[in-house]
Design brief:
The complex is a heterodimer of chains A (247) and B (293).
Chain A: H1 2-22, E1 27-32, E2 35-36, E3 40-42, E4 48-49, H2 51-63, E5 66-71, H3 77-82, E6 88-89, H4 97-102, E7 104-105, E8 110-112, E9 114-119, E10 134-138, H5 142-149, E11 154-158, H6 161-169, E12 176-179, H7 180-189, H8 191-194, E13 197-200, E14 207-209, E15 212-213, H9 218-233, H10 236-243
Parallel strand pairs in A: 1-5, 1-6, 10-11
Antiparallel strand pairs in A: 2-3, 3-4, 6-15, 7-15, 8-14, 9-12, 9-13
Helix pairs in contact in A: 2-9, 2-10
Chain B: E1 3-10, E2 13-20, H1 28-37, H2 56-79, H3 81-90, H4 92-120, H5 125-139, H6 143-157, H7 162-187, H8 191-199, H9 204-234, H10 246-257, H11 260-292
Antiparallel strand pairs in B: 1-2
Helix pairs in contact in B: 2-3, 2-11, 4-5, 4-7, 4-9, 4-10, 5-7, 6-7, 7-9, 8-9, 9-11, 10-11
Classes of the chains: A alpha+beta (247), B mainly alpha (293).
């Protein structure tokens, strides 16, 4: 009898927690890999800032919930959401078919493309031109997937895109593929790198970013979508793009 | 015949050297060593537990773990080819790189270790100071930080391939530990050996290279094997600097397929099989060496 009672209590608590997790929450924990300027990065005051962060805060304000950001390494950020360590991810995540199969996405909130950065002396102006050479990208990003598609180009993956740029500065790789705004930040805005690197061509993909939530968490998707729609209607996102110098 | 225990501490590692100091009827040395032998020594290496025949529990545990790991891996691949077989097909070149880094680093570390070890017992103040300083600095910096530092510091001055910088970084670190192993090994050879060699008219250099070092190799071999396994495991750290080793390959697979649990299961099993395999070899080697004594 006692055993059954305990089991019932455990089950009841479990159900409560489960329903609490999926009910529209007041406080949403959002993971971000803050190594991707200007979308999300840690500023001199150790605060997580960037377009995605401002955007998420605007969405929260519109939809009426609190946001807590959690700086999480990119490699494993998706595993964390599956394990329930946080409710959502806003980290320049491109909506792809593979990711959609495993996670739920909100409506797209910005459109951005991949672009190639090379050393100044490099003549090639697209990834396919760099045959037999090494090209770097952050692990598990759409940039890495683009390099993989190019035959004869060796992909090198890095934990952070900054490490890839540093490796290119050291001459170990001949190109880096990443999101266009990040490429601009690294290749043009950083003094040390702007002397060494150049951006070639135009963005060669069109990708839409979405906020990631756990598969099946429909309430949160609805809540976030409501906020995104409101932000876009009030043109707050346009102001934010201007603030962070995004096209 | 006397038993001598020598202990050597190197940044948290502790080895126990059990050696028969040889055919030399030593006087004073015997007394000091017998008292030394009574000391309790805790033997915890971070390489791997070497399965010795004398330790029955560990010997059986080795068999269970080794064949269990192989069995589990085969079972998973057989019953769920997706994703386990796909993972297993994705990582072999990573295993190769892991071996390249480990072997390269252990060879280079042995050379650095020999020089450092000789430097540490040198009577020359400058050489001794330099070797001790090197050991002190390296021991005080985490390996992960060293790998980052050497990799990006090297990049500022010379252009070397990623894998070579990884080998250098690992070797510089392990050279310090290896130096301590070499030093302890040399010091474990009874003083009488040196005295005899000198009295036969050898100079200090000849004594070291013809008498002391050949004997200390036997003492040094087991802990070097241990270092080898420790290095093999630590080599997983180089995945951080974009060297495509076993762990990196696994992470690449996981990051695109989102099969984190499955991938790391396979990676862990492969590392386990490799280290268990080598610990067995080292166990056998150790027995051979002790028989020859």
């Amino acid at each position: 009898m006692k055993f059954i009672r305990i089991m019932a209590a455990v089950l009841a608590t479990g159900l409560c927690l489960a329903s609490a997790a999926f009910a529209a929450p007041k406080n949403v924990t959002v993971a971000t890999d803050a190594t991707w300027p200007p979308m999300e990065f840690v500023d001199a005051n150790k605060k997580i800032v960037g377009f995605d962060i401002d955007f998420m805060n605007a969405v929260a304000k519109e939809a009426g919930f609190q946001v807590t950001f959690k700086n999480t390494a990119w490699d494993g950020i998706f595993a964390g959401i599956a394990a329930g360590q946080y409710d959502a991810i806003i980290s320049s995540v491109t909506i792809t078919a593979e990711r959609k199969a495993k996670f739920d996405f909100t409506a797209p909130y910005i459109s951005i493309g991949q672009i190639l950065v090379v050393p100044k002396a490099e003549k090639g102006n697209k990834v396919a031109d760099l045959k037999g050479k090494r090209v770097g990208a952050q692990i598990g990003t759409t940039g890495a997937m683009e390099i993989k598609k190019a035959a004869g180009v060796e992909l090198k993956t890095y934990d952070e895109v900054g490490l890839a740029f540093e490796d290119m500065a050291a001459g170990r790789i001949s190109g880096v593929v990443c999101d266009q705004p990040t490429a601009v930040t690294y290749a043009l805005d950083k003094k040390e790198y702007s002397k060494k690197f150049k951006i070639v061509g135009k963005p060669f993909t069109t990708e839409a970013y979405g906020i990631v939530v756990k598969k099946g968490n429909k309430d949160l998707v609805a809540l976030l979508n409501k906020g995104i729609a409101s932000v876009q209607k009030k043109k707050i996102d346009v102001q934010l793009k201007k603030k962070w110098h995004l096209k | 015949m006397q038993e001598a225990f020598f202990r050597q501490q190197s940044g948290g590692r502790q080895y126990q050297f059990t050696t028969r100091a040889g055919r030399w009827p030593a006087g004073q040395a015997t007394n000091s060593m017998t008292t030394e032998a009574k000391k309790q020594i805790i033997d915890v290496g971070d390489g791997a537990a070497i399965p010795r025949k004398s330790d029955r529990g560990l010997f059986t545990a080795w068999r269970i773990a080794f064949f269990g790991a192989i069995g589990t891996l085969l079972y998973l691949v057989k019953t769920q080819p997706d994703p386990y077989l796909n993972i297993l097909k994705f990582v072999p070149d990573g295993i190769l790189v892991t071996f390249q880094v480990t072997l390269g680093a252990i060879l280079l570390a042995s050379v650095i270790g020999l020089i450092t070890g000789l430097g540490r017992i040198s009577k020359n103040r400058f050489i001794n100071g330099a070797a001790s300083l090197y050991v002190e600095i390296i021991r005080g910096i985490p390996l992960l930080v060293q790998i980052f530092y050497i990799y990006y510091a090297l990049g500022r001055f010379v252009q070397v391939p990623a894998i070579l910088s990884a080998i250098i970084a690992m070797a510089v670190c392990y050279g310090a530990y290896m130096g301590e192993v070499v030093r302890a090994g040399i010091e474990s050879i009874a003083k009488g050996q040196t005295e005899a060699a000198l009295s036969l008219g050898m100079n200090a250099r000849q004594t070291m290279f013809h008498v002391i070092l050949p004997q200390s190799v036997k003492v040094i071999l087991p802990p070097v094997g241990n270092e080898f396994i420790a290095l093999l495991k630590d080599s997983s750290l180089v995945s951080i600097i974009a060297v495509a080793d076993l762990l990196r390959r696994g992470r690449e697979f996981a990051s695109e397929s989102f099969t984190y649990f499955e991938t790391y299961t396979v990676i862990a099993l492969i590392y386990l099989i490799i280290t268990l395999f080598f610990s067995k070899i080292i166990g056998v080697l150790e027995e051979r060496v002790s028989v020859n004594k």
